[in-house]
Amino acid sequence: MSGAQQEQVVASELLERRREQMFPKLTPAQMARLESHGRRIDTRDGEILAEAGTRQSHVFVVVSGSIEVRTHDQANELLMFVLTAGDFSGEMSTLRRSAVLATLRVREGGVALAIETEQIRLIVQTDAELSELLMRAFILRRVALISSGGGEITLLGSRHSANSLRLREFLTRNGQPFHYTAIEEDADIGAMFERLHIQASDIPVVVCRGEQVFRNPSNRDMAECLGMNPQLDDSRLYDLLIIGAGPAGLAAAVYAASEGLQVRIVETTAPGGQAGTSSRIENYLGFPTGISGGALAGRALSQAQKFGASLSVAAEAMSLNCSQRPYSLALTDGSVLRGRSVLIASGAQYRTLAIDNLDRFLGAGVYYAATHLESQLCRDEEIAIVGGGNSAGQAAVFLAQSCRQVHLLVRGAGLAESMSNYLIRRIEQTANIQLHTRTQITAVEGSGDRLEAISWVNSADGQVQRHSIAHVFVMTGAMPNTPWLKDCVVLDEDGFVKTGPDLNAQDLTAAHWSLQRAPHSMETSLPGVFAAGDVRAQSVKRIASAVGEGSICVQFVHRALQEMSSPA
Q1: Residues with Cβ < 8 Å from 564, sequence gap 6 or more?
Q2: Exposed, middle or buried, 277 (CB in 10 Å: 0-12/13-18/19+)?
Q3: Cα dist from 564 to 329, 519, 553, 554, 568, whole Å
């Protein structure tokens, strides 16, 4: 069976369940409504309408003739689907204005309706019926492309390489299809090394579209190679700059963009923030069977992009110029963004343990997330999880499905004070999870950069135990991502951003608060600069709370913008 035939079989399996939703036929009435938003073009046999890896400005609706949708694996261009009369092209790259993942080639010449991306965005915002049909198709097509395991990106990595894990997580969480090869598991890896002129010390290596070879590339390198971010005018003045695409930032983006504000989001790693790494969230409103953090983030991002919000990933905030308004945000890549208002939603990260050499094993035995990628690294092994909050509980339940033994280490006397009851009960009923209370890790050991053993002590009896455990998941405490703020806004003693009533008169005097009114409830010591989610002092560290804060914050953004527009 040829490569193309194999891909057709795989595509058929993926399409079998939701074919009608992925490739719905437009009715004559729907076609007529779309007609007013585009222009008719003649198509010719063999013509390329869109090339994978390039930015496209149109969606094509087939009036007559046919168009092939083709994807790629490591060596071949493969047929995924044939669009005929009443079908349309496009997936989530259409709304994101990023590089497309499939090539469109005319099979049989005819007529197509070409609709510009901005018109598609207008349609999904104003036509409820077409919005549901287009958005569902775009989302499901993206999922199918990811799950196909193909793509024009090849990542050569190692199960013992922290940077291999970093790149896998970056590509996976940003919805980029890629082919992964672990050098320990490929008998023919030597031939590939020779062909690419690389060696084992270069790992990880990324081959981008069969042309560019990157040795241990940065996330930014990957974003640029793949065209993941839209091409935007950085000199543009936005109504709202959002730093961080976690639950708070995404919620704010959805509400602000849907209410007509021009929104730009910058995110260091991937949509979802720390919450995006959660294997399953079962106490989030509206999802009785649970939802993964990645799926929740993906849906939220689709909503934000539907309403016109722009997201840039692998974009890290370096400093906020708070001396004049509009405010300017400097990024580590040298670009500067301007905003009439700013939302700090940069979140928090797990605290590191005060143990010698711990950082040496980061990504190669010590992890701060428990996604399916980490679970593959420790399958059938004995592991330890440090932490007593919901994230640690979710990780324990998730990893217990594939690990031989899970040790859950907590400093306190139990889990009741910091973990939801449903997780506690789940842990109690899982035979291969062992809870160790009043316990802390005291040492980590390993040869080279690979963790091999850990020791822990029980504070009740002082007993120290050493275990041959090569995988430790650290999910304890929270450190706010605020170093980039420097002296712009008032922080509490732990580095979290103080807002609203938490700002006392002394804080406001020291910050030179310039307005007659007091700060709004989520406004910082800088007028028009807000904070929401885990980065905010006194916030409830829960996903639903962060979503609520991001949503509520938008009403105060409107008030702040109105103040700017009002005459003095």
Answers
A1: 325, 340, 528
A2: buried
A3: 19, 15, 17, 15, 9
Q: Return the H-helix or E-strand segment holding 485.
A: none
Structural domain spans, the chain: 3-147, 153-226, 237-349+479-565, 358-474
Q: Could you tell me which of 264, 475, 476, 455 has the C-alpha nearest to residue 357?
A: 455
Q: How far is CA 152 from CA 75, 178, 543, in A?
A: 8, 7, 34
Helices 421-428 and 390-399 sit at what angle, rounded to 10 degrees? 30
What homologous superfamily is domain 358-474 in, according to CATH?
FAD/NAD(P)-binding domain (3.50.50.60)
pLDDT tens for the chain, 568 residues long, are: 334 444 444 444 555 677 888 999 999 999 999 999 999 999 999 999 999 888 888 999 999 999 999 887 656 677 888 999 999 999 999 888 898 888 999 999 999 999 999 999 999 999 999 999 999 999 998 888 877 666 678 899 998 899 999 999 999 999 998 889 899 888 788 888 888 889 888 999 999 877 789 999 999 999 999 999 999 898 999 999 999 999 999 999 999 999 999 999 999 999 999 999 998 899 999 999 999 999 999 999 999 999 999 999 999 999 999 889 999 999 999 999 999 999 999 999 999 999 999 999 999 999 999 999 999 999 999 999 999 999 999 999 999 999 999 999 999 999 988 899 999 999 999 999 999 999 999 999 998 888 999 999 999 899 999 999 999 999 998 899 999 998 899 999 999 999 999 999 999 999 999 999 999 999 999 999 999 999 999 999 899 999 999 999 999 999 999 998 766 5
Confirm whether 3-147 and 237-349+479-565 share one CATH topology.
Answer: no
Angstrom CA distances, 422 to 291, 406, 438, stand at 15, 18, 22
The backbone torsions φ and ψ at residue 45, rounded to the nearest 5 degrees and listed phi first, read: -50, 130
The length of the chain, given as a count of residues: 568
Give Cα 356 to chain centroid, integer Å: 31
Q: Which CATH architecture has domain 3-147?
A: Sandwich (2.60)
Among candidate residues 475, 394, 389, 391, the one with its CA nearest the CA of residue 433: 394
The answer to whether the pTM exceeds 0.90 is yes
User: Which residues does 142 contact at the CB level (< 8 Å), separation at least 6?
Assistant: 91, 92, 93, 101, 175
Q: Which fold has domain 237-349+479-565?
A: FAD/NAD(P)-binding domain (3.50.50)
Q: Is 409 exposed, middle or buried (0-12, 13-18, 19+ CB in 10 A)?
A: buried
HSE of 112, CA atoms in CB hemisphere, 13 A:
28
Domain 153-226 listed as CATH 3.40.30.10: yes
